[in-house]
Amino acid sequence: MTTSLHVKVNYPEAISLKKEVLNIEESLLKTIENAKDYNELRKREYFLKTKLRKLIVSLRNKLIALEYDMPKEDLSKIRRKMPIHISKKEIISKIQPKILSNPKIEPHKEDAIGKQLAEIRDKLARLE
């Protein structure tokens, strides 16, 4: 046994309820878009972290190889004569172009969500 309940709503109230429903739909679609953007940023972050990790490992291996190839003499005398100063800026300027040369992740283009958002905005404009 099903019973149906009818509620009488006047016209201005019906329009305001319709606007509220459309605004809620619009905010939900924006939230979905933001979640997609967040996932894209997380993928990019993961890509950059793995690339940085690989660069650090290769640099470490090169340093180990260089240390192995260096003579095993007392280097303290040589260091006193030739102090080596490399600034952090020089190191960063050499590494940064390699890190930033990764393929860019394209932001998602207007898809079904964008079309739905446009439809909702049109409906809202027509109601006002």
How would you describe this structure to a colleague?
This protein is mainly alpha-helical and 128 residues long. The chain has one domain. It has four helices and no strands. Helix 1 (11-69) packs antiparallel against helix 4 (112-127). The longest helix has 59 residues, at 11-69.
Topology:
Blueprint: H1 11-69, H2 76-81, H3 88-100, H4 112-127
Helix pairs in contact: 1-4
- In one word, what is the shape? rod-shaped
Q: Give start-end ranges of low-pLDDT stretches.
A: none
Radius of gyration: 31 Å
Count structural domains: 1
Biggest sheet overview: none
SSE series: HHHH
Which class of secondary structure composition applies to the elements? mainly alpha
The proportion of strand residues reads: under 5%
By oligomeric state, this entry counts as single chain
| End-to-end C-alpha gap | 41 Å
- The count of β-strands is 0
The share of residues in helices is over 70%
Let me know the average pLDDT. 80
Number of helices: 4
